[in-house]
Write a structure and sequence with these properties.
The protein is globular. α2 crosses α4 and α8 runs antiparallel to α11. The relative contact order is 0.12. 26% of the residues lie in helices and 22% in strands. The strands form seven sheets. The protein has a six-stranded mixed β-sheet with strand order 3-7-10-8-1-17, with helices on one face. The chain folds into two domains: 283 residues, no CATH class; 99 residues, no CATH class. The protein is of the alpha+beta class. Bound molecules: zinc ion. Zinc ion binds next to β1 and α4.
Amino acid sequence: MKRIFSAILACAAGLALAPAAHARITLDFDYSLDTGFFTSNPAAKTALERAATVYSDRLLDQFTDITPGNGNTWNTNFTNPSTGANTQIFNLTIPANSIKIYVGGANLGGALGQGGPGGFFSNQGDSTFVSNLLYRGQTGAADNPPSDFGKWGGTISFDKTVAWNFDLTAPAAGKNDFLTVATHELAHVLGFGTSDAWRAKLTPKAITSGTQYIGPFTGPKAMKLNNNTPVPLETPSGTNNAQHFQNSLQSTVGGVAQETLMDPDITTGTRKKITLLDWATLDDIGWDLARGGDATADGSVDFDDLAKLAQSYNVTDGQRRWSDGDFNYDGNVDFLDLSILAQNYNTTGVQGATAAPAGASADFTSDWAAAIANVPEPTTLALAGLLLIPALKRRRRAK
Ligand SMILES: [Zn+2]
């Protein structure tokens, strides 16, 4: 049985601003509008926060804060995840490099989840404040056509009537995998299918009620993975815009073929991981990604990253994250990940950017030997791991 996802839209208009460096982006969940879904299912909370690490481990940008006061005011405008009502919250403060996401459960009438960015209205204040609300400092978001994305946050609703699998290990037959649906809906909050930057890479089509945006998707990084041809999208129903890849569109996870995370549906009882094509599309709509091997997501692939990977090397429990050194999202840390790191070793920059040398020269072979030699026996791994990084740093400085 196939179950569908759906997405919520948000809109905003234009203004100008300043350029950006890189920091990790935090996804800050707000459960205050939940009416029992998460309190009845604590494992859902764990799975949601696990899904968020797919993005928070790797997304690099520099989001400005949104701080009301001194005559600067605003109201949110988003879909209440439990009731479906438009929700206004006055003068939220959003910290720098953080996105707030309201979550809850509802009867979605057939969809497993529904997510998207939040809007706002009745904003007043100086130009910096208004610009931060619109773009969060993402220069390209103000361009025409927009090439970046920066919102205060958004909302996700999960269907509360279906049989869910909250287990992180694997979905059971007949159950819908919450981890997959959460990962999918989070991509919509981050602008996949729901942002001006996404629509800028679609084809506008005049309809009686205005403009409809349809596929294919022409982002260059996604196209590169699709034999340099535009990427097919779903045929939207009615006057909706296309918000997903074409049904059953394939990409790869760790070199193995898999249906894309962001096609319109998922087969009950199965799990999908994020594929190369899903990532390339997020990259195309403006997100900067840590490059392969940058486990610490600090913009350089260096000894710290080798040390992280060494701690999980050959752990094949399917539960590894980017920050453990799982650079191909297959859940394991193994030779494939080490190869990705080795290819980018001692370089700086984000995914897709021209690699620059990361300062002092480093010998991958001897550094790997040092990194793996410092990994303790498995029985003491968890405790000793806390001490490992400072010890290795000292060694490096002495060089
Ligand atoms: Zn969707």
